[in-house]
From TrEMBL:
Residues 262-446 form the FtsK domain. CDD domains: ABC_ATPase. This is FtsK domain-containing protein. Keywords: ATP-binding, Membrane, Nucleotide-binding, Transmembrane, Transmembrane helix. The chain crosses the membrane at residues 72-103. ATP binds at G282, H283, P284, G285, S286, G287, T288, S289. GO terms for molecular function: ATP binding; DNA binding. The keyword Transmembrane helix applies. Coiled coil: none annotated. InterPro entries: FtsK_dom (IPR002543), P-loop_NTPase (IPR027417). The keyword Membrane applies.
Amino acid sequence: MARRPLPRILSKDSAQIARTQIARSRELARTAADSATDVLHPLITVSRGLRRLASAGRRRWVETPKDKRGPLLFLAASVVLVVVLAPYGPLLAAIALMAAAAWQGRDRTPPAPDGPDESQAERLRSLYEALVPYFSTDGDPAPLYAHGGEWEKAFDTHEFDDTGRVGHLVIRYPAYFPDGEGEARARVEQLLAAKAGRGREYHFAWDEEGNRLTVTVLAPLPTDIAAQRFVTAPGETVLGFTDPTEVQRTLPLSYGDEQRDTPPVVWRTGLRSTEPHLLAMGHPGSGTSTLLRSIALQALQYGDVLIADGGGTGEYACLIGRDGVLAVECAPAGALASLEWAAQETERRLVAINRARQAGDPPPEDTRRPLWLILDRPSVFTHLTAAEGRQDPQTLLQMPLRHGRAANVTVVVAEQFESAEALSDAVRQHTRARVVLGPASPEQLRTVLGAPPHTTPLAQVPPGRGYARLGTGPVHRLQVPSTPDPYDDATGDADRQAVSALLPPRTTPADAAPAEPLGAAAPVETAPLAAEAMAAESS
């Protein structure tokens, strides 16, 4: 029996060519439409005027009383008769009718004002006066900023939104302003955010060479993105979504019955990752647990996950017993045993990979599957184990953090700002991918991210809203996809179904205890670890 050929899927290049052809066709059609409009503009104007004259005549006839309609018809018929009998009467009447129609059909839209109106000019003048102390000095012979000066010289471009507030502004500033200092920039940005209108996010672009500051109002990030399967490659994790001008990539997302292309913040892990581990900070209710749940659901598609929940709120109960979930620990003893096993597993993988490379063989299959260690509020375990006289679980993270990239082990830690000082030095040093969720001060953002964002943080933000920075890259605005606990009564039906559809099948009953603890792994030769681990890490 002959098989029907499968439909060929368009490659990336062919899809790009198709999009280019569609864009050119649209541009050609738009150009043809504009040309036709220019050619037919007189006819369109006369037709519009005839329609308006006919409407005016109809209204006049309706408003005329019935007892006066007869004389009016007689007068109109007399005028038509005179026009017909007069020399060149019909021609002159047609010319007069076309002229009247052209006059009535003209575009009556008033021209847009060249400059700002009175209220807008007052706003710009207020901004100018507020910037005078920051952009002026006593020794300037020709100051650009002075009290009572001309704001038109300082503001190159200005646009306003529908509410009358500033939407886009290009500001000139003198060359002696220290635009390379973060404190000087922060003072100006804080002033502009307060004077231009609170409750909005502003993006500040400093052009140090041209002495220009561009202020742009950012649109709110979408908060209706539900948990779903993202179109990503193995080793790619979607942390959230950002502005379209910040990244070069978009992902097709489902919004109910429609689809949109949204720019994501993609975190790459694995052997060639420069930021193999992640740290998320925030206040209670900021959405850090939602971020970890989203990461865990994406990680289970290609690897195994081990979760240690220090909060003890049952945020990850939906993952217990699922395929690929090694353990979900909420007690200090279980967390210690699980992290001890994770350290031994990292060591075992390093030794196995090093021996395989020395023998010229590919790495063993059991070392290629990614292992994810997800810790929510490990500082709670630190305090509990210290009270019981046990080992700090964070000390067991040194091996996965230092050598996890070579062993396909990824560590994700979420902590609250109130307990940030309880994080170990290993966690601080080796988590180069950073996320801050919820309201945060500029000092907190700079401390966690290592650089200030180019936008003004808001005091009130929705859950899952914050900033992300991968290594030494730029700081992105971030909105985490909605991934709530499906067992929570406050979760909506749509979000509960979206998360439940991503959960792997349950292979172990949730109340069944494992036959042996995770720490009961096969003994590992630890003597040659240092040399072999260094060789595996360097390769």
